[in-house]
Design goal:
With 120 residues, the chain is of the alpha/beta class. It contains 4 helices and 7 strands; from the N terminus they run E-H-E-H-E-E-E-H-E-E-H. It has a single domain, classed as 3-Layer(aba) Sandwich (Rossmann fold), CATH 3.40.50. It is 38% helix and 23% strand. Helix 2 packs parallel to helix 3. The two termini are 20 Å apart. Pfam families: Response_reg (PF00072). Keywords: Phosphoprotein. This is Response regulator.
Length: 120
Amino acid sequence: MDELAGLRALVVEDEGLVALLIEGMLEELGCEVAVSVATLAEAITAATHETLDFALLDVNLDGQSVFPVAEILRTREIPILFSTGYGRVGVPDAFKEYPVLSKPFEAEELEQKLRSALKQ
């Protein structure tokens, strides 16, 4: 059985079409999208209360930084992947050990970075 099958994901993405694409990619990998949210407030609630195996976080949520959510997830020891149009430079040094997907990305890159995040 593949290690990705059935893993519960938190998707934080403020662009509706991009969120749908990401959700589709994750489902093709066998993951379950437990929660998909578009705002910082919703993301904080989900990161605090949901049962999750990993999270994919858009760095910029309508002008707000997603890093308060990342702090919650790091405290809970939940693997994180960041997605951003800014590349690695859009992620502060405090989170440099986490994989970064540069938008736009393909399903193969998502799978590779996800497997890497789960091994950390």
